[in-house]
Amino acid sequence: MDFLQTLVTIFMQYGYFSVFGILILCGFGLPVPEDISLTAGGVISGLGYANVHIMFFVGMAGVLIGDSFVFWLGSHYGERALTLPVLRTVLHPERFDKVREQFKKYGRWVVFVGRFMPGLRMPIFFTAGTSKQISFFLFLLTDGFAALISVPIWVYLGYYFAHNFDELMSWVRGGQTIILILVGILVGVLFFFWWRRKHQEGKGDK
User: Fold this and answer.
1) ∠125-151-163 over CA atoms, to 5°?
2) What is the pLDDT of residues 144-167, one digit of tens each?
3) Would you tell me how many other CB atoms lie within 10 Å of the CB of residue 158?
4) What is the spatial distance between Cα 190 and Cα 30, in angstroms, rounded to a whole number?
5) In angstroms, rounded to a whole number, what is the distance separating the alpha carbons of residues 87 and 101?
6) What positions does the domain VTT occupy (predicted)?
7) How confident is the model at residue 151, as a pLDDT?
8) What is the mean pLDDT of residues 107-120?
9) Helix axis angle, 136-160 to 52-77, nearest 10°
């Protein structure tokens, strides 16, 4: 809670630009929880220091620009970028190898899932860039679709519980679980429609 209050204090003073900047730095590997930053942006909106709908777009822009930079870094410099101090501290060779193996198996779906995995986002997005298996446009589309699920949850959670930090923190602790449940439902629905389409096509061929 202390860290959330610290972010709220900073964001109240500097508004949208501070939220935007912190989120971009999160993408670069800054050890600040992205979900807490988004929630703090929602809190200052609930307290009247910002418009919550604008904050949602600021949040989307911040996370996507940060993620895109990491992807570009991997795409442009490849594994040479692993020698950079900003990457060396968070992306060890062993972790990079593990993420690369997962990316070979599952492709862009790893990017989608990576958005909901704090601590693994940067390694996954960097590896996506080095892999050359996914274009920047497809990366941005996949990451953006995933962000449309997670970003509004954190921003509007902060907004609705801005005046009750104890209640807010209880929701924040369970927020990641809520997001994973929503993702699971979405994947289930998409799989159902895919299966039904395949089933109907199979009938049509008979």
Assistant:
1) 140
2) 988 988 899 899 999 999 988 888
3) 29
4) 34
5) 19
6) 32-159
7) 92
8) 77
9) 150
What the block records as the tokens of 174 is: 């369970």
Query: What sign does the CA torsion over 152, 19, 157, 13 have?
Result: negative
Amino acid residing at 104? K
Structure token pair of residue 18: 């501070």
Q: Are 186 and 148 in contact (CB under 8 A)?
A: no
**Minimum mean pLDDT among 18-22, 53-57, 103-107, 155-159: which range?**
103-107
The number of residues making up the chain comes to 206
- 38 near 178, Cβ under 8 Å? no
- Contact in structure between 86 and 29 (CB atoms under 8 Å): yes
Looking at 47-164, list the stretches that DSSP marks H as alpha helix, in order from N- to C-terminal side.
52-77, 85-88, 93-106, 109-114, 121-131, 136-160
User: Which residue matches tokens 């997001």?
Assistant: 179
Which phi and psi angles does 192 have, rounded to 5°?
-60, -45
| Cβ count within 10 A of residue 53 | 13
Flag whether pLDDT at 194 surpasses 80.
no
* Residue that the structure tokens 């989120």 belong to: 23
Question: Is 130 exposed, middle or buried, given 0-12, 13-18 or 19+ CB atoms closer than 10 A?
Answer: buried
CA distance 143 to 125: 9
Q: What is the mean pLDDT of residues 113-134?
A: 80
Sign of the alpha-carbon dihedral angle for 56, 27, 184, 154: negative
